[in-house]
Specification:
The protein has 130 residues and is α+β, with helices and mostly antiparallel strands. The protein contains five helices and six strands. It has a single domain, classed as 3-Layer(aba) Sandwich (Bit1), CATH 3.40.1490. Strands 4-1-6-5 form a four-stranded mixed sheet. It has a two-stranded antiparallel ribbon with strand order 2-3.
């Protein structure tokens, strides 16, 4: 069993297109911060190379918007939040400017990474995305 754990928690009222977008944005952000989780490249039987993938299972869970805020404030784990401010922005500079003016932003999703016990404690009661 791995000593660390990843979890992706999406807001429970997201339509499929926004859920997929949030998952991709957080996956890219998390991957950039944790390159050590990238597995080795592999080859298939035809010799084609397949780039390495994340070597951790990633449960995709759901929670209310309020619970996402609580998760984003958690201590002892890496957390990356995707907010409504980010989702609605069309350029990164626009996002940063709008975020700087936003108090208590609403979350679309949160990714967590850290010690297995800590991430499990934070997510054990959350349902898998249906």
């Amino acid at each position: 069993m791995l000593p660390t754990k990843l979890a992706l928690i999406l807001r429970d009222d997201l339509p499929p297109n926004l859920a997929a977008n949030a998952a991709v944005v957080l996956g890219l952000s998390l991957g950039a911060r944790l390159p050590e989780l990238l597995g080795d490249d592999g080859k298939d039987a035809d010799g084609s190379v397949h780039q390495g993938l994340n070597n951790h299972p990633v449960p995709v869970l759901t929670a209310s918007g309020d619970h996402l805020k609580t998760l984003h404030r958690a201590e002892g784990v890496l957390k990356i939040g995707f907010t409504e401010v980010a989702r609605r922005s069309r350029a990164y500079a626009e996002y940063l400017e709008a975020l700087a003016e936003t108090e208590d932003p609403e979350f679309v999703a949160v990714a967590l990474y850290g010690p297995r016990a800590e991430v499990t404690k934070l997510t054990r009661k959350l349902p898998l995305m249906a």
